[in-house]
Design goal:
The protein is an alpha+beta fold and 64 residues long. 41% of the residues lie in helices and 16% in strands. It is built from 2 helices and 3 strands, in the order ββααβ. It is globular.
Length: 64
Amino acid sequence: MARKYIDCRAVPSTTNCSVTIAADSEQELLDVAVQHAVAQHGHQDTPELRNQLKQAMREGAPPA
């Protein structure tokens, strides 16, 4: 199973967040990314947010 990540720099944001989150499973990554989006970006935990985060997932190692 390939490692997955979400790089906040690749998602439009007014805060210019530079956090990258990585995990071995899609579910683990999604859970942590939702927590980050709610706590740091003020989003609501909705099916739409979860779908956007799933679409932002990439395989491999994040760029340096």
